[in-house]
Design a protein that fits this description.
With 220 residues, the chain is mainly alpha-helical. The protein folds into two domains: 149 residues, Ribonuclease III domain (Ribonuclease iii, N-terminal Endonuclease Domain, Chain A, Orthogonal Bundle), CATH 1.10.1520.10; 64 residues, 2-Layer Sandwich (Double Stranded RNA Binding Domain). It is 61% helix and 11% strand. The chain has ten helices and three strands; from the N terminus they run H-H-H-H-H-H-H-H-H-E-E-E-H. It has a three-stranded antiparallel β-sheet, covered by helices on one side. Helix 4 packs across helix 7 and helix 7 packs across helix 8. The chain is globular and about 55 Å long. The relative contact order is 0.12.
């Protein structure tokens, strides 16, 4: 079984045009070295297809005002969410990058772009229904979580919406005894330490760090 057979198995769809699938995994760095087309056009198409699919899914699943639905959609198609699902499926391991790029880890932005390129390729090869099946595969549980827990308009969400293209790292550590712990969190953005927070649990520490980071950004 070659690598793209494995990719098809992970995605759950057999491409009629195998070149479309391969093109979805061609990073611009490899394309520039090899004088072939990168996945950027598929990514461009996939971005619009993804937004349409996500909007329809939310429209059918929720009876909510536009503003709330917009926040739901933003959380589902954000860079961090798309990078997360690509990471869970390990599809980034098949991304074809140039010699220099291949020495470093695949970034969150590259995983996000890959997801959109895959959606674009699925749409071209099998139509909207096929693209929707992949979306359901990767986002079904996330939409289910929105149904049961809703969308908490918390500091972490607000920070991600303020900086949608940035990878926001929460460096959180536990201190003290198990019966009375203290969690300390520092937010790192583009290699720079930003807000700091402490709390009695991981969530509260990260929320405080996010709030402090938002204040730092607003004052800058």
């Amino acid at each position: 079984m070659n690598s793209f057979d494995k990719v098809e198995k992970i995605i759950g769809y057999s491409f009629k045009n195998k070149n479309l699938l391969k093109n979805a995994f061609i990073h611009s760095s490899y394309a520039n070295e090899s004088s072939i087309e990168s996945n950027e056009r598929l990514e461009f198409l996939g971005d619009s297809v993804l937004e349409l699919i996500c909007t329809e899914e939310l429209f059918n699943a929720f009876d909510l005002p536009e503003g709330k639905m917009t926040k739901y959609r933003a959380s589902l198609v954000s860079e961090s969410t798309l990078a997360f699902v690509i990471n869970e499926l390990k599809l980034h391991e098949y991304l074809i990058r140039g010699k220099g790029e291949s020495k470093s880890k695949v970034t969150s932005a590259e995983k996000c772009d890959l997801y959109e390129a895959i959606i674009g390729a699925l749409y071209l090869d099998g139509g909207i229904a096929v693209a929707k099946r992949f979306f359901d595969k990767t986002h079904g549980q996330l939409i289910g979580k929105l149904k049961t827990e809703g969308y908490e308009d918390n500091a972490k969400n607000v920070l991600q919406e303020m900086m949608p293209k940035e990878r926001i790292v929460y460096s959180t550590t536990k201190h003290g005894e198990d019966h009375n712990p203290t969690y300390k969190c520092t937010i790192i953005i583009a290699g720079v330490n930003m807000g700091y927070g402490e709390g009695t649990n991981k969530r509260s520490a990260e929320q405080m760090a996010a709030k402090n980071t938002i204040n730092m950004i607003k004052k800058a």
